[in-house]
Design goal:
Number of helices: 10
Largest sheet: 8 strands, parallel
Distance between the termini: 31 Å
Radius of gyration: 21 Å
Strand content: 15-25%
Shape: elongated
Helix content: 25-40%
Number of strands: 14
Structural class: alpha/beta
Order of helices and strands: EHEEHEEEEHEHEEHEHEHEHHEH
Length: 334
């Protein structure tokens, strides 16, 4: 159930209504828009008299939400959510470029890449320290040492950093990480989602490789129900019958998600395609179809990369792509 309050509702009456609703056994998610306040009732609200609530003088209307995701539903939050990271805004018309290597390998590598992507206009630096790999024999990341190097590169360039956490027990290591990434393999790790829901910092949630858009939103709901509303959704390709690319990049889901949710939606064409030559056309298409940002892998020496070198752009390739993305945005941005 969603309760939409009138613009002139007093703070005292609003607080009384919220208190009464909580007494009925539901949680109340408050969304303060530019012109109205929306109360989203979380839990079983079937016993609450809808007509009674609708008749209150501060209530504009009451609507029933059929979707199981209430916090991230656009019905409960009509305005776009804008997530801010170190002065960088994502969503609501603000486009963000995130770039960096798949894995942090050395001080020289991460600093060189950080400097190059910043010079090309990237606003956030990504880098993996904990790497979930299909094979146990593949490089698993530098872990805490990798995080330390990523933080150093972030401080040196002034770029906020993004890195993936794999286990709730590792979260203390991420205290100084600006954006915590939940990877595709952990999209439905509900214990981890609950823990990041307790944090008050942005979370970049990647779509699982075999997950629907609504399953992605339900995972976002776990985070938001815990009180953390700073969620960024990421489309990174899904597994289909087609074997021409590593995954199938579902760009149609971008406008679909924008219709269903108020959360920002970015696209990762690197993991979706698995091939550097395909990153450019898919990045431009993502920018054109309304994505709120791009996350692209960049490596200064892809041939010798310890992880996913085949999908990484060289710094000069990223620089050219960043300029093209800006031109596409000038044409297509609302």
């Amino acid at each position: 159930m969603i309760v939409i309050l009138k613009p002139d509702a007093s703070e005292e009456k609003r607080s009384r209504l919220i208190g009464w609703l909580k007494e009925q056994g539901v949680e109340v998610h408050i969304s303060q828009g530019a012109y109205q306040t929306v109360l989203g009732l979380i839990g079983d609200a079937s016993h609450i008299d809808r007509d009674l609530v609708a008749g209150l003088d501060i209530v504009d209307s009451v609507k029933t939400v059929t979707e199981p995701f209430k916090c991230c539903s656009r019905r409960s939050h009509p305005d776009d959510t804008v997530v801010e990271v170190g002065g960088v805004k994502i969503g609501g018309g603000h486009f963000c470029m995130i770039a960096g290597p798949c894995s942090v390998e050395s001080e020289e590598q991460i600093v060189a890449v950080a400097r190059s992507v910043k010079a090309s206009g990237a606003q956030l630096l990504r880098g993996g320290a904990f790497k979930p790999r299909t094979s146990p024999y593949d490089f698993q990341g530098l872990k805490a040492d990798g995080l330390a190097l990523l933080k150093m590169a972030g401080r040196e360039t002034g770029l906020p950093i993004v890195s993936e956490v794999m286990a709730a027990s590792d979260l203390p290591l991420f205290e100084d990480v600006d954006v915590i990434q939940i990877g595709a393999r952990n999209m439905q790790n509900f214990d981890l989602l609950r823990e990041v829901g307790k944090l008050r910092k942005p979370v970049l949630l990647k779509r699982g490789m075999a997950s629907t858009a609504k399953e992605l939103l339900m995972s976002a709901e776990y985070i938001m129900a815990g009180g953390n509303e700073q969620v960024i959704l990421c489309e990174r390709g899904i597994r289909t019958f087609d074997d021409c690319t590593r995954n199938t990049l579902d760009l149609a889901v971008v406008p679909v998600l924008h219709e269903l949710t108020h959360l920002p939606v970015i696209v990762d064409p690197s993991h979706a395609t698995g091939a550097a030559k395909l990153v450019r056309p898919m990045a431009l298409a993502a920018a054109a179809c309304g994505a709120d940002g791009l996350m692209i892998e960049v490596h200064n020496d892809p041939l010798h990369a310890l992880c996913d070198g085949a999908q990484a752009l060289r710094p000069e390739e990223y620089d050219k792509l960043a300029g093209e993305v800006r031109r596409v945005r000038q044409v297509t941005a609302k």
